[in-house]
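User: Fold this; tokens only.

Assistant: Input:
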Amino acid sequence: MHMTEPTQSTALRLDRQAYERLLQRASFLRQWLQPTIEGMENIPQAEGALLVTNHGHFGMDLPVLLSLILDGTGRAVRSLGDRVVFATPVFRDIARAMGAIEGEPGTTVRLLQDDQLVLVYPGGAKEALGDPDAAYRLQWERSHGFIRTALRAQKPIIPVAGLGNEELYVQVVSQDRVRQSGVGRLISKFLGDKYVTPIYMGLGPLPFPTELHYIIGEPIHLPYGPEAANDKEIVIKLHQQVTETTQQLIDQGLEERESTGAGTDTGTDSDAVPRTPS
């Protein structure tokens, strides 16, 4: 039985109207960033799947990606949020309206088994707040949980490359320098070292008008049963496969962007979503 909404827990149900309303409110980002996307045919029409992608600055581009997939497939995507997001009432309410849930493995498995699309950033805060010299280099070394989750749910993993999301803001003070400040030491003490945020510059609160482009890769079907989630060697093997596949998508996209000299604009792709929102 294929469901379009989670049924096992009321807390997991998506308020579709609130979801679409929030993405509509964020539509100015699509006008500002002029996003394109290719590979939409790799999103299943009804089955559950775990989407994995590289993390841009603050996840600012997340509503853009969600709206592109919604427009292209009619499907909502449930994203996994960090515990810090859900610790603050204002951000928690926004995250929930956007369909996000706190990244707990059991909850994610239930959503996938209920044939939902779930998106995760395996690099987390480390990748989102990294130094510019690490831009577009996946930092998933210690993130094996998403592999175990997909195995337990018996759902495919879909790699997604995000291009342009590393140029939304310019880092003017590094994370290491902020750590040495009084504020940085407080954040490190109460939230954890990885949550110390560098100082960025944009156009005021807005990001620079960087053209975003997403590449959705082919689903990676896992040839093992749910019991493989407890097999360390299998998990490591699959982790390497998914990481390398996603990195290759990113690298190919960057090469195409450089060769065309057109930023992230690949709007000539036959399956790309139009650059202006409908």
